[in-house]
Structure formats: structure tokens, C-alpha cells
User: Which sequence fits this backbone?
């Protein structure tokens, strides 16, 4: 009898849980629709394009750098952008470092909707671009916040020359309360990505 009284509330509970899941997704990924630009960026900055393994064409920003300096592959945080990433690294660009600033699906007028699986494909495509640009130079992968999770994921699939993360969480689900954790679609378990 008790369960029969609760049965009519089931659709309401399911609707609320779906709304919570969407709300959490929107907190994790905060894309903006402004297209990337190189206006105001260091000399030599250019838009680049990569194609992911699942066929998504993405725009990013790159600076070739000089032959004697490494290339930085930069993954920005949840509300960042590739063009702002290049601006942050302007002092290193002035020293000759190359930069490939990745832009995610769903961000900066790129097609698609961001999620962990998609951002992993995006990371792989931009890593290939950075390796091609670097030639024999080292590629230093840099991730900020959510971008650190993307970078750690890349490190589980590729042997990286170096990895630097700034303001990156250990596990995304750990940030949320106990009830909300069930609705976090993408965990980004960065501790699991660190060997030994």
C-alpha cells in the first residue's frame, strides 16, 4: 500500500533527477558561442583546424614558435577559450615557445556538445596537431582546471614529454555533494591517471 502511494510521484522524481543532471552538466561545461579570434594575440598567432576521430571539425589557435623551444599544448578550464589561453602564455611566446591552444566541441562556435568522451577525442586531435607542429621539439601539455582533467586523460592514452596542471581537481565527483554525485556524468578521475 505504501509503495502504491509513492508510485504517482515516480515521474516527478525522474523529471527532477534529469533536471539535476542537466544542471550539473551545465556547471561542468560552460561553453560560450563567441568564435575564436587572433586579434590582440601575439604575432604569429593563427587559427588552426583539426578533425577528431569521430569526425568533428574544430577550430583552435596556434603559434609556431622557434625551432629551439618546445611547443605547449594547452587545455583551458570549463569557462575558458583557446584564444584566451594563448594570451596567458604571451610571455613564453615572446621567448619563442610554440603554442597549440585546444578548443573543445561546443565551445567558441565549434560544433557538438561537450562531454568527457568528446573532449578526449578533441584532445587526441589537438595532440596530433601539436606533435606535427613540434617536429623534433618537445610537447609540454598544460591543463587548467577542467583542462587538467582532459590532459590527465590524454596522458593515459599517449606517452607525453611533460604534463603540467594548474588548479585541477583529483576527482570531479568529489567536488559535489553525496546526492549530486550520482548525477555527475563525467568523473575525470585524475588520481587514477597518475601511475604508481
Assistant:
Amino acid at each position: 500500500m505504501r509503495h502504491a502511494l509513492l508510485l504517482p510521484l515516480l515521474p516527478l522524481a525522474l523529471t527532477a533527477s534529469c533536471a539535476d543532471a542537466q544542471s550539473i552538466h551545465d556547471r561542468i561545461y560552460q561553453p560560450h558561442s563567441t568564435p575564436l579570434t587572433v586579434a590582440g594575440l601575439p604575432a604569429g598567432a593563427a587559427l588552426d583546424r583539426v578533425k577528431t576521430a569521430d569526425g568533428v571539425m574544430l577550430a583552435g589557435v596556434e603559434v609556431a614558435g622557434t625551432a629551439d623551444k618546445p611547443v605547449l599544448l594547452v587545455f583551458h578550464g570549463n569557462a575558458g577559450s583557446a584564444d584566451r589561453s594563448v594570451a596567458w602564455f604571451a610571455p613564453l611566446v615572446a621567448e619563442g615557445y610554440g603554442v597549440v591552444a585546444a578548443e573543445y566541441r561546443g565551445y567558441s562556435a565549434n560544433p557538438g556538445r561537450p562531454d568527457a568522451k568528446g573532449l578526449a577525442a578533441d584532445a587526441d586531435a589537438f595532440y596530433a596537431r601539436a606533435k606535427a607542429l613540434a617536429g623534433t621539439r618537445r610537447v609540454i601539455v598544460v591543463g587548467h582546471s577542467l583542462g587538467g582533467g582532459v590532459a590527465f586523460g590524454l596522458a593515459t592514452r599517449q606517452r607525453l614529454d611533460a604534463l603540467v596542471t594548474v588548479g585541477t581537481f583529483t576527482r570531479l565527483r568529489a567536488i559535489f555533494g553525496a546526492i549530486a554525485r550520482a548525477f555527475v556524468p563525467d568523473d575525470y578521475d585524475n588520481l587514477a591517471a597518475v601511475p604508481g
Q: What stands out?
A: The domain at 2-193 is CATH 3.40.50.1820 (Rossmann fold). The chain has one domain: 2-193.
